[in-house]
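Make up an example, fold above all:
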Amino acid sequence: MAPLLMDGTKVLTDPRVYTRRWASRHPIYMGLIVGGLFYLVETLATGDPLGTIPFAVVIGAIFTLTSFGERRRRKKHKLPD
């Protein structure tokens, strides 16, 4: 049996579910974090900080839109936030 919180809901133990919940709660942060990490990694790999910016913005926008889609899916299926 899973542990319960004070209000009687179950504690999430599956990290995949927790990350989806976090992404649906914070879609803008998700895009900024992923875009920033992509920018750092690509800048270190290529050595071109200005050429990497458009690609980092696109990757961040894709992850932001995906997070908004996850938020919409959770509301549609009445899943807990």
About this structure: The radius of gyration is 17 Å. Helices lie at 15-25, 27-46, 49-76.
